[in-house]
Design a protein that fits this description.
The complex is a heterodimer of chains A (130) and B (501).
Chain A: E1 11-12, E2 17-22, E3 25-30, H1 32-38, E4 41-46, E5 52-53, E6 58-64, E7 68-72, E8 77-82, H2 85-88, H3 92-95, E9 104-108, H4 120-128
Chain B: H1 53-66, H2 87-93, H3 96-99, H4 111-128, E1 132-134, H5 140-157, E2 165-169, H6 175-182, E3 186-190, H7 200-208, E4 215-221, H8 233-242, E5 246-251, H9 263-266, E6 270-273, E7 293-295, E8 307-312, E9 321-325, H10 341-377, E10 393-396, H11 407-416, E11 423-424, E12 433-436, H12 444-463, H13 465-469, H14 482-487
Parallel strand pairs in B: 2-3, 2-4, 4-5, 5-6
Antiparallel strand pairs in B: 1-7, 6-7, 8-9, 10-12, 11-12
The chains are: A alpha+beta (130), B alpha/beta (501).
Chain lengths: 130, 501
């Protein structure tokens, strides 16, 4: 196994987002493994607060010196907040992907999508297999 | 300037080397009455460089000497086919009868050019097994765009306008999903299986599930961007056709098929050619490109125009008359005039020089050279898909036990050995990808020199990784700060132009 971090209290998608649930608010970011694979992140862009998205929809994109990637939510709902600090300092995602590098908060209208996510152990195994 | 001081830029901007009033040409005294432009259309300053001829020549020669080109050495840039541009192409393109032909010349006065375009359409159709070809798209991505617009219009005309999904494998060129989105359609990504082929279970699920009636088609590159021939391609095509979709082939990797496999006969409905890749016309900064598009009978009426057809048959001593024609249900023009005609000329010359057996040899040598490099480099680098490859293959730019060295460092170090770096970090599905394509023109000695450089770099990674991390050491500039370059877009020249609001 590599030396990335995978906090045990979060849920993980195959497209390398992490999800944290608090009431009906879901906070989403990308994993330590993802930021390491992407390398230096130079640009982020998110949908606007107030926008509604469906499960499986993209809520934004992240661009590094290596690649540009879409960001996906597994839950539908309304975007209540985006981390605007990342616009000027996208490198925060590299430095602190699970903390200050969070990306969006969504008021989820349905939480079923979270059930399909992996726990930390399953996500580590998934990353190891890639 | 005789030289430059170490703290100065390698070559100043041309705006910084002139002086007010300096000029490279002396115009004769004006001997006709001066006309005066309306005051609102004139301005006092025009920020153009003010330099003499010698300064201009030296400036651009110096810049060209800082550059690296295929005329200097191996340029193994995978998935882009940066092949040598034979000089005879340039001879042909400079023939005054072609070079000085005005694009608005009446068709009757441009029969030679029209004949050449007609021949090229036919040859490209023959090489790929397609019914008809349009030369008008200006580059590969525009050829893709034309192809997807044709597929869309085909479905609309059949009353199946709800077909709005295009399947795209995850190894695809980035232009494929961009094209689909640009055409107002939706992308569905398909994973690769362990062999690097399209995952057939995922394809069947997409084509036989709830979305079946929304499948408009599939875009696929053959061989894939991993350099691998899709061994299940016939089943892929049949599956998409059974769902009612059409098959688009991205022809960027045609250098592995030309003269050997005809995509039209495999069952593809439409493809684009990159004349600036497969057919040796200049690429990158040497462009412009040309993204001709070929189609079968189904899509022929939708071709972008104009295309060249015989408008009056040969009659006794009178040769046939060629003319520009818009196909019956054409999606329209992709570009002003007739596409990048200078590229049609060069591609025509290329095909003409090689002939049919030579074209086949081009492919055979391209594939042989790639497999030779792959077989030798497998001893020092990991090859994630160790199958016979087409014209290119992927290595992992990661040396066992040396985690601090990345693909980028290996690429930068190659520059010190006199080679252009290969493509980095693409395709995205291989970590630390180095995508290598030697092309057919490289002789064994040059391939061996490249292998030796790569082997030495692998050894350096273990014994002196700092040498790689700080590379290049001999290039005109050292390691560039890519993060800063991506984040701080500052143009330091650009004298502000006055506004004309």
């Amino acid at each position: 196994m590599g030396d990335w971090k995978t906090p045990a209290n979060l849920k993980y998608s195959e497209s390398d987002e992490w999800f944290a649930l608090d009431g009906d608010i879901v906070t989403i970011g990308i994993t330590d493994y993802a930021q390491d694979q992407l390398n230096d992140i130079v640009y982020v862009e998110f949908r606007d607060p107030g926008d509604s998205i469906d499960a499986g929809d993209s809520f934004g994109e992240v661009e590094s010196v290596k690649a540009a990637s879409e960001l996906y939510s597994v839950v539908p709902g309304e975007i209540t907040e985006v981390n605007t600090a990342l616009e000027d300092e996208p490198e925060t995602v590299n430095a602190d992907p699970f903390g200050a590098g969070w990306m969006v908060k969504i008021r989820a209208s349905d939480l079923a999508g979270l059930d399909s996510l992996m726990d930390a152990a399953a996500y580590d195994a998934y990353c190891d297999s890639r | 300037m005789a030289g430059y001081l170490p703290e100065q830029a390698l070559q100043p901007l041309i705006y910084d080397i002139g002086a007010p009033g300096r000029s490279g040409v002396n115009l004769p005294e004006c001997d006709v009455p001066r006309a005066t432009l309306p005051a609102e259309l004139t301005r006092d300053d025009l920020p153009l460089p003010e330099v003499g001829e010698v300064q201009v020549v030296r400036h651009f020669v110096k810049l060209s000497q800082l550059n690296y080109s295929i005329d200097q050495g191996l340029y193994p840039l995978g998935s882009c086919t940066m092949k040598y541009n034979p000089k005879i192409n340039e001879d042909a393109a400079r023939l005054p009868g072609f070079a000085q032909l005005h694009p608005l010349t009446d068709e009757s006065g441009a029969q030679g050019a029209l004949f050449l375009m007609h021949e090229l359409q036919g040859w490209l159709g023959e090489i790929s097994g397609f019914e008809a070809v349009s030369l008008s798209p200006a580059a590969g991505a525009q050829g893709e765009f034309a192809g997807i617009l044709m597929i869309r219009q085909y479905h609309i005309d059949r009353g199946e306008g709800q077909r709005d999904i295009i399947l795209v494998p995850n190894s695809a060129h980035g232009t494929n999903p961009a094209t689909v989105t640009m055409a107002g359609m939706e992308v569905r990504e398909l994973p690769a299986d362990a062999q690097g082929n399209v995952d057939m279970r995922a394809l069947h699920a997409a084509c036989e599930g709830d979305l079946r009636d929304r499948i408009a088609g599939m875009m696929i590159t053959v061989p894939s961007t991993l350099g691998l021939f899709e061994s299940t391609i016939l089943e892929v095509i049949e599956t998409v056709h059974d769902a009612g979709g059409l098959m688009y082939m991205d022809g960027a990797n045609m250098n592995a098929l030309m003269g050997v496999v005809k995509p039209g006969e495999l069952g593809f409905d439409v493809m684009h050619y990159n004349l600036h890749k497969t057919f040796s016309t200049p690429h990158g900064g040497g462009g412009p490109g040309s993204g001709a598009v070929g189609v079968n009978e189904k899509l022929k009426p939708y071709l972008p125009g104009p295309i060249v057809e015989v408008v009056a048959e040969e009659d006794g001593d009178t040769p046939p008359l060629y003319g520009f024609v818009m196909p019956e249900k054409s999606i329209g023009r992709m570009k002003a005039f007739h596409g990048n005609f200078g590229m049609h000329l060069r591609a025509y010359a290329y095909i003409r020089v090689y002939g049919d057996s030579g074209i086949r040899d081009v492919t055979r040598y391209a594939v042989l050279n790639a497999n030779y490099l792959r077989a030798r480099l497998m001893r020092s680098y990991r090859v994630p898909y160790p199958r016979y490859c087409g014209h290119e293959f992927v290595l992992e730019g990661h040396i066992e036990g040396v985690d601090e060295v990345h693909a980028l460092d290996i690429s930068k170090r190659l520059m010190d050995y006199g080679f252009h770096p290969p493509t980095n970090y693409f395709p995205l599905i291989v970590p630390e990808a180095l995508l290598i394509e030697p092309t057919e023109t490289e002789v064994k000695e040059d391939l061996d020199a490249f292998v030796e450089a790569m082997e030495r770099i692998a050894e350096e990674a273990r014994t002196e990784p700092e040498t790689l991390l700080n590379a290049p050491h001999t290039a005109p500039v050292r390691r560039l700060d890519e993060v800063r370059a991506a984040k701080e877009l500052v143009l330091c020249c650009a004298p502000a132009l006055p506004s004309y609001s």
